[in-house]
Amino acid sequence: MAGLEETGRMQRLVTGAARVPFPRRPPKLVRGSGTTVHEQIETWLADEIAAGQLAPGDRLPTEHDLAAWLGVSRMTLRHALGELTQRGLVAKTVGRNGGTFVAQAKLEQDLTTLAGFSEQLRRHGMVAGARVLTAAQIPASPAAAAALKLADGAQVHDVRRIRLADGRPIAVEHSQFPATLFPDLLDCRLDGSLYELLEERYGQRPFRARESLEPVVAGVREAEALEVDEGAPLMLVERTAYAKSGQPLEFARDLFRGDRTRVVVWTSELAGEL
Predict the structure, then answer these.
(1) Span 178-226, pLDDT tens digits
(2) What are the residues whose beta carbons fall under 8 Å from the beta carbon of 226, sequence distance 6 or more?
(3) Rounded to whole angstroms, how far apart are CA atoms 82 and 76?
(4) Three-class secondary structure of residue 86 per DSSP
(5) Which domains does the chain have, with CATH numbers?
(6) Torsion of CA 246, 158, 129, 192, to 10 degrees
């Protein structure tokens, strides 16, 4: 592997046309530091991606070349790349033009302000879409009845959809709306923004929401719907959305792909705190 240590060669290997500069020397990997070597490699590559040194679409060297440059075994490197793949930071493809590539940036879900999925995507310059799986009027589940302050057995409009970002599945959305509050909702087109529909047709728009987050893994049905492997990481977001008056409007449980989304929350100091 003579020549791998040469700076110019390594830059071409990592960035293809050397569009993005690459470090002149490999990172210093400390053995016996309490952090495994593969974790150090994972952290280093993640930092390079976060800093923009490696951009979406950049191709990494072959495992053989990159392992030699780092001075580690291919097994150690594969472990690091496997973790980065699970985190959605790199993606592997097969075939003649296959390899390991820096993945597209994750969609940031800002939970600080209440905005529908379509609006969030527009902020990122992406096209929102939806594919309706089921839409029916059913008795509210106990959890939905409690959240929406409905009597036992009250009817809700139950809507399940696949949410798309630039045509690719990113979330399974499951929303329930009080049927008496939104009559004939199921007769409307349900492949656009439901929040905009509530506002335009019924004069009701969610003003605030209580949302809880829980990491889960994809089952068979979720994996098929989201085009991920069974057991892939997902983020469950449970939400109760309220009108400005305090009237509950929606109870939802959404499953987001962990490799394509990141949750952002802005916080501030509590009033009166020093």
Answers:
(1) 999 999 999 999 998 899 999 999 999 889 999 898 999 999 999 999 9
(2) 162, 169, 170, 171, 172, 218, 232, 234, 255, 257
(3) 10
(4) helix
(5) 7-102 (1.10.10.10), 107-264 (3.40.1410.10)
(6) -60
